[in-house]
Amino acid sequence: MSEAPREIEELISLMAKLPGLGPRSARRAVLHLVKKRALLLTPLSGAMQKVAETARECVSCGNIGTTERCDICTSEKRAIGEICVVEDVADLWAMERARVFRGRYHVLGGTLSALDAIGPEDLGIPKLVNRLKDESVTEVILALNATIDGQTTAHYIADELEGRGIKVTSLAQGVPVGGELDYLDDGTISAALRARKSL
Amino acid sequence: MSEAPREIEELISLMAKLPGLGPRSARRAVLHLVKKRALLLTPLSGAMQKVAETARECVSCGNIGTTERCDICTSEKRAIGEICVVEDVADLWAMERARVFRGRYHVLGGTLSALDAIGPEDLGIPKLVNRLKDESVTEVILALNATIDGQTTAHYIADELEGRGIKVTSLAQGVPVGGELDYLDDGTISAALRARKSL
Ligand SMILES: [Zn+2]
Ligand SMILES: [Zn+2]
């Protein structure tokens, strides 16, 4: 492809690496950006630079924030006795949008997977266990996707936490089989959290 | 939405303005960008800034380039006798990918539309007529979308150019009814250009 100037081709090929955009939708997006240079392209470039400079993983929970420990971990309004374990930051955001959970989180960054050789250490599960030792946690809520890997991971964590005097629950009613948290509406997530059951 | 830091929410809301990305795919894209900060986010921000600084409309044809007159208009390899009229830069790129047209272009930036009150001046049709006076053009190829507005525009331009001793043709065979150029494969565009007919 050499129909556009080099600078624009470079932008198209980078945009095409975004999830949800292929080469042709990346081209359309870039043309749109060039047309809306002042209104969209320049602000977007600036916003990306700002995020690149400021965004970082929370050292406690793995959430994305702009400080060493994220706003949720440092908030005095959040219960320190409950930790909600999620696969991904997108799932944490989905939980927050539902506005029913007032504790803190632990972001695994994935699920156990024999196929992809992802083990407990890769997911920071030992780090989660250490948090439980240091912090006065009374309940761990496993809010993992209702996929096979998600449920395998949930059971692995439940086994790891057994005998520590910590209640381990999981989202239950409302999560459809095979469904992914990030695709559910807020009401479904709320119902699932309220009806959580002991494992 | 306040689940993510302000900087990230701002980036998400700007990304959601891109064609093809809604609020939820924008969130996914931004999370992906934060994870691939060095590999994707920083380069993308830089590429956008570069395009914002360098991209401009060619004063002759309306193509997007980085110079006052674009590479196609200034190329000595392109025939000066043929001008291909397209609605949009995306269509110009689609024509270039087909690699069969070796003349130059005129980008209208849209089609005539009574509904949207878009008249000939808005599309630079008088500018096209002036180009034909100044440049030694022998053929104008109308490569407009096979939509009602596209064909109305084609006929308007054909009428405007009548009696000037310029051959006016249009892409014909191969363009499906209701189809848009930018969605066609290169072979279809090639066939349509080769089988172009006089209006
Ligand atoms: Zn945190
Ligand atoms: Zn040009």
TrEMBL record, chains A, B:
Keyword Metal-binding: yes
Coiled coil segments of this chain: none
CDD domains per the UniProt record, alphabetical: TOPRIM_recR
One GO term of the biological process aspect: DNA repair
One function term, GO molecular function aspect: zinc ion binding
SUPFAM superfamilies in the cross-refs: Recombination protein RecR
PROSITE patterns: TOPRIM (PS50880)
Keywords for this protein: DNA damage, DNA recombination, DNA repair, Metal-binding, Zinc, Zinc-finger
Role: May play a role in DNA repair. It seems to be involved in an RecBC-independent recombinational process of DNA repair. It may act with RecF and RecO.
Classification via HAMAP family: RecR
Name recorded for this polypeptide: Recombination protein RecR
Origin organism lineage: Bacteria, Pseudomonadati, Pseudomonadota, Alphaproteobacteria, Rhodobacterales
UniProt gene name: recR
